[in-house]
Specification:
The protein contains 15 helices and 15 strands. An 8-stranded mixed β-sheet has the order 6-5-7-8-13-14-4-15, sandwiched between helices. Strands 9-10-11 form a 3-stranded antiparallel β-sheet. It is globular, with a radius of gyration of 21 Å. The protein has about 375 residues and is of the alpha+beta class. The N and C termini lie far apart (about 70 Å).
Amino acid sequence: MEIFTDKNECCGCTACENACPKNAITMQTDDEGFLYPVIDDALCVNCGICKNVCAFQNGCKKSQIQKSFAVKHKDADTRRASRSGGAFIAISDYILEKGGSVYGAAFDDDFSVKHIRAVTKEQRNRMQGSKYVQSVVGDSFARVKEDLQNGMYVLFSGTACQVAGLKRFLEKCDTSKLFTCDLICHGVPSPKIWREYLAYREKQYKGKVTNADFRDKSIGWSAHRESVWIDGKKHMSNGYTSLFYENEVERPCCYNCKYTSTDRPADFTLADFWGIDRVVKNFNDNKGVSLLLVNSDKAVELFDKIKEDIDFEQTDIQASIRSNPNIAHPTARPASREKFWEYYRKHGFEKTYRKYYIKMSFGKIRTRLKAKYKKLKKIILRK
């Protein structure tokens, strides 16, 4: 049995692994650190379930965005701990208060990222903050199915491809109590690169990682710098951030994303509300604002039930998504991607990082100089 012929056609959502009736599929990492399904031919009976359940190749039911909102959670501590405005906390609080379960990405003990199940707010709080690396979904799809069969409300949060995979996996189930939340996603970087970046910082600062934050809000919501704590001491940089934005470490299928449109697989879509000052005046305090897109009828109903917990403004949909380009098109595959990985395979992470970080730094300097030149030219021409 063959699920896909090209890695551009697999997002690693685990629907095939969870759906296989013979447990013939395991998720295994390739040399870039991404998980792909591997079939044990001795167990496989060629039933085709794995291929049919693949949402990335076969699609899933989607909903057109109905409403968009700028959202800030009223609780200051909640917003401080959230990456943007804390909309996810308001939604998940409702599910938990109904005795439900919440699934989302969280740090493991070694600061790898995996999906976890939460039935308390303390457990759920581990999901707060952005995770700029592909999460390991594990058996989450099967556990969601079990929760639904037990009559529980469930909220599943993840990338759009993960949500689509879950929905395809649950096609024959009663999903009336399931709520899903996807993200406007730039692409998912390699977990292997993230692990080796942390190891590089441990070597640099001669200690062990004790905490990490992909986007540290202590210097303001609009900034994008990561922080790594080594033996309790905080070190802030933009090294991993720069790797992420150079787009060379994203999963191959991300350049072929099937979910970059206003037709969304999830009930809710979340993002940072970039461009908020252009859309809603005097709402941004640089402490984080969520863009919350409400896509389904039951999401509209749930939103009405969380209004007391949030400050919000309804916004024009097209104006709201204009500053989030990944809702319109995938991240472009850089021509340098293959050279990056060839160099990495030959020289390892540390040498590759040093080489490419220097390149990225010079690139930023050139960009800033060009911007200043254009600005100066306009001033001179006006005179």
